[in-house]
Design goal:
CATH superfamily of the largest domain in chain A: MetI-like
Order of helices and strands of chain A: HHHHHHHHHEHEHHHHHHHHHHH
Radius of gyration of chain A: 28 Å
Number of helices of chain A: 21
Order of helices and strands of chain B: HHHHHHHHHHHH
Structural class of chain A: mainly alpha
CATH architecture of the largest domain in chain B: Orthogonal Bundle
Oligomer: heterodimer
CATH topology of the largest domain in chain A: MetI-like fold
Number of domains of chain A: 2
CATH class of the largest domain in chain A: Mainly Alpha
Distance between the termini of chain B: 21 Å
Number of domains of chain B: 2
Strand order of the largest sheet of chain A: 1-2
Helix content of chain B: over 70%
Strand content of chain B: under 5%
Radius of gyration of chain B: 23 Å
Shape of chain A: globular
Distance between the termini of chain A: 16 Å
């Protein structure tokens, strides 16, 4: 809601009395408010799928009385969203609305009571007053968060970008030499460095392997959880929560110890003698991968399990009554309904595994022998703090930032396609 | 969803494999605690027995005596405590703003919060180091607290959204009809209702702060009295021979508070995740 559409700044004095819809400015509210809701909804529609909610909401004003028309349009826009949240598996029901044909009948039942309420004239009126009263309130509430984020997130990102364009080493930090602008010089150095490419490839492959393994383990165990009785389920849940709660650094130390060539139980058990896992490049990566999967599959498992439980049993029963096989039910009913949740856990896993730092740093002792186990994060850190090449470290940081930004954009796209309401 | 009708032998097999997996998943933690209690001689043995007949507190004693471990523990606790409380309150206000109000740039802000979660904080260590140096915060706990508040906020806001949204609009309207002011509604009605969500959210800020090792390593460079636990843990890694008993004891001390916290809020955590993922 813009400040511009607010009739007067003195209205904030009425926050205590929004319950009285017949305030003097009641009648003209729809008129002054008229331009605003479409604007709000347009942004919302953009976030949701193809502006269906806007189209769907355009209907009810006609049915409702003239006085409550604008208000009920607002209600209509919100109703599907609220109904979706209440339905238990909102992702699925919202998803349905991405098909125009399916949108109408699905949303209508949810909207009708609100329209009636609007016609009654009591509900929406107070909302309009409160809305006007609180034009500045949301910004007041947001102020601390925005201040902190601006100072400690946005400003550092700007600085990171700046440093990546400068010549910035120990000499400049201590003030011995003036900082000089390098343009894309640092990036050129980086792109010409074969080690950078090697690390980049290692990071992508390692992250992909981690994501794949985590998702496979998490989803398989989530399905397993639905097939077993309470006691074994509790045991598996507790074990997973324990792994989830373990700090990355202690998890790393414990796994290194488990695979220790001299005293670790794993080599004894497998009869590997004094085989050193951290010596070879691939075995070291494999060890880190095991630890990463161990501490990140519980998130996937618990989330997917919660998603499966949220699927209404009637749907599954209907499918099996229609003679669908277990596999068919999974492929045609469960999986599509789980898709929103799967998207979330996949993207989260990608982001987490791409940023792995502590595990690599601790388990391979700062990047492995001759840097064989470096990933971008550790590489940037080593460049900056171990060899004082702050500008090169920053350039690597910017590369990471851009890659993760690309992943995020894909994520936002997927959310939008699913009609997820923000 | 009701249990799908699968045949009995299959279910037994599934349950057996679930138990085996649970044991495998829990094994590293078991081994950690076991090794912390093993006497030095058994740890250095090449037999690696999965039990011990003579538990001892030697390793713990070594950990607490060797350095100011207790102090590091309190430092870690202090940093995590401040971050949890501050970020919970700030995130609560922000989540209320983005869920209970419609205003311009609301969607933009939400997307920004989402994008902010993706920022690799490790990459920001470099500019943050210079920022902290300019603010004179290097070697202080403040240099750990401030960035962690900032980095836990976006996820906390994103996750709290679901909880704030779940409080019915009618309740808010009823409160205003009864004459409650906005502030009163916020703190006396909304806050208690959202509290379970705040707890679930704080798990994440607690863990990320408690686990932090990079900032502690980069910003606390010379004043070891301001060190936190992860740094203390690394002291036991020695180039020639790692003191595994000490490492495992220190790891146990570091893991237990998180485990306790996790178990306490476990129920809310799962429902909270449901909320975060669902809406």
């Amino acid at each position: 809601m813009t400040n511009g559409s607010e009739p007067g700044p003195n209205t904030p004095s009425t926050p205590g009395t929004p319950g009285t819809p017949n305030t003097p400015n009641g009648p003209n509210t729809p008129a002054t408010r008229e331009p605003a809701p479409p604007g709000t909804r347009a942004t919302e529609g953009a976030a949701a799928s193809a502006g269906i909610s806007a189209a769907g909401a355009a209907g009810p004003p006609g049915e409702a009385s003239a006085g409550g028309a604008a208000a009920s349009a607002v209600d209509g826009a919100y109703a599907p969203r609220r109904a979706a949240t209440a339905s238990g598996l909102p992702g699925a029901s919202v998803r349905g609305s991405s098909v125009v044909g399916a949108a109408g009948p699905k949303e209508r039942p949810a909207r009708v009571p609100n329209v009636r309420k609007a016609a009654g004239g009591s509900g929406p009126g107070d909302r309009s007053v409160r809305r006007r009263a609180g034009a500045r309130t949301p910004w007041l509430y947001l102020a601390p968060a925005l201040l902190i984020l601006a100072a400690l997130l946005v400003y550092p990102i700007y600085q990171l970008g700046l440093i990546s364009f400068l010549e910035y080493t120990q000499a400049q930090v201590s003030g011995g030499e003036p900082t000089t602008f390098q343009g894309l010089g640092n990036y050129r150095t980086l792109l010409a460095d074969s080690q950078f490419w090697q690390v980049l490839v290692a990071t992508v492959v390692f992250a992909a392997a981690c994501v794949l393994a985590t998702l496979t383990a998490g989803c398989a165990l989530a399905v397993l959880l639905t097939r077993i009785r309470a006691l074994p389920r509790l045991a598996l849940m507790l074990a997973a929560l324990g792994a989830w709660a373990t700090p990355a650094i202690t998890g790393s130390t414990v796994w290194v110890f488990l695979f220790d060539p001299d005293y670790g139980p794993v080599n004894r058990l497998l009869g590997l003698g004094d085989f050193s896992w951290t010596y070879g490049r691939y075995s070291a990566f494999a060890l880190v991968l095991l630890e990463v999967v161990w501490c990140s599959f519980p998130f996937v498992m618990v989330t997917v399990y919660a998603g499966i439980k949220a699927i209404p049993s009637e749907v599954l029963e209907a499918a099996s009554l229609d003679g669908a096989s277990q596999y068919r039910i999974w492929r045609s009913v469960t999986a599509p309904m789980l898709r929103p949740i799967l998207v979330v856990v996949t993207i989260q896993s990608i982001i987490w595994d791409f940023k792995v730092f502590t595990q690599i740093y601790v388990m391979t002792n700062g990047g492995g022998i001759a840097g064989q186990n470096l990933v971008l994060n550790v590489y940037a850190y080593q460049k900056a703090f171990a060899s004082s090449q702050y500008s090169l470290g920053s350039a690597i940081g910017i590369v990471m930032l851009l890659i993760l930004l690309a992943v995020t954009l894909v994520y936002l796209r997927l959310l939008r396609r699913q009609g997820e309401a923000l | 969803m009701s249990l799908p009708s699968i045949r009995r032998p299959w279910r037994l097999a599934a349950e057996a494999s679930a138990l085996v997996i649970a044991v495998v998943v829990a094994f590293p933690l078991y081994w950690m605690v076991l090794s912390a209690f093993k006497p030095a001689g058994e740890i250095q043995s090449t037999e690696a027995r999965p039990w011990t007949l003579s538990p001892s507190l030697d390793s713990f004693r070594r950990v607490f005596e060797q350095q100011e471990f207790g102090r590091y523990f309190l430092n870690s606790l202090f940093v995590a405590g401040v971050v949890v409380i501050a970020s919970a309150l700030i995130a609560f206000l922000a989540a209320t703003a983005v869920t209970r109000f419609r205003f311009k740039f609301r969607t933009t802000l939400l997307i920004m919060f989402l994008v902010a979660q993706m920022v690799p904080i490790e990459a920001l260590t470099i500019p943050l180091f210079f920022l902290m140096r300019d603010l004179g915060q290097l070697n202080t706990l403040g240099s750990l607290i401030l960035p962690h508040i900032a980095f836990s906020l976006p996820f906390a806001i994103w996750m709290l959204r679901g909880f704030v949204k779940a409080v019915p609009q009618a309740l808010e309207e009823a409160a205003y009809i009864d004459g409650a002011s906005r502030t009163r509604f916020l703190w006396q009605i909304l806050f208690p209702l959202v509290f379970p969500g705040l707890v679930a959210t704080s798990v994440f800020s607690f863990i990320s702060t408690w686990n932090d090792f990079l900032f502690a390593k980069s910003f606390i460079i010379s004043d070891t009295s301001q060190s936190t636990l992860p740094m203390a843990l690394l002291v036991f890694f020695k180039p020639d021979e790692n003191d595994w008993g000490g490492i495992m004891a220190a790891s146990t001390v570091m893991t237990v508070p998180v485990l306790v916290f996790f178990v306490l809020v476990q129920r809310r955590l799962v429902s909270g995740l449901g909320g975060a993922v669902k809406d």
